[in-house]
Amino acid sequence: MIKQNVDVRPQHTMDLHGKVALVAGGYGAIGTTISETLAAAGATSVIVGRDGDHARSLAGQLSDKGYIAEGLELDVSNAGAIRELSTSVVKHYGSIDILANCVGFNKEQRMLDVTEEAFDKVYSRTLRAAMFLSQAVAGHQIAVGKGGSHIHLLSIGSSFGFRDRGYSSFCAAKGGLAILLKQHATELAPHGITVNGVAPGRVRTQKNDKALHDEAAFERATADIPLGRLATPADVAGAVHFLASALSRFVTGQILYVDGGLSACR
Fold this sequence. Notes:
The chain is built from eight helices and seven strands; from the N terminus they run βαβαβαβααβαβααβ. The protein is of the alpha/beta class. A seven-stranded parallel beta sheet has the order 3-2-1-4-5-6-7, with helices on both faces. Strand 1, helix 1 and strand 2 form a beta-alpha-beta unit. Helix 3 runs parallel beside helix 5.
């Protein structure tokens, strides 16, 4: 009989005290809530992105609430900068236990109008960034030998097309990330590192909230969502929190759709 070297006691905690979370793109419309949710659960949130001032500002707000957070500047399209920053974070905090990858970029162009420049920019800031963020963090996690988790923010566009929208570049990048994370999950599983994705449908954020105050616009946006509303950033952050916690320790290579049942009807 093969024995499993694993704690078989029930896991009832989403506590993240003692964990260090690298939240890439952690000050965006959804990333801000993810950064705060992980920090509120006890993790040290290291918030990184192209705008260092925004990252530091959010970290300061979280620190004022009693959480542990730091903001740093990082161009995720620069693989060398990713490696340098991840090494610095590990030297300072001892580890990176959680990678929450919230970065992404979209340039909406109809299929016949897609330019090479736009396609390459979406690729470099989305799929390429995810590859080298994961590579850098995984290298440190393997060296430390404590396992870890990677959570990538996707979209229903990683599996479905968008009618009447010019999302060729975006869907290609997010779709590539959807299969990339599955490959990473298989390669990193022997090291106790889980890799998963969270794919939101339509999310109500500060960017679109004003437009959705119009009743007709809201009804159009929610017409095909079984739960009858849009997701909130907190809905998405809750899924990320679950995948970062001990409750999901046997979940890897999966994509969790946070879409109110939209994908169930496609």
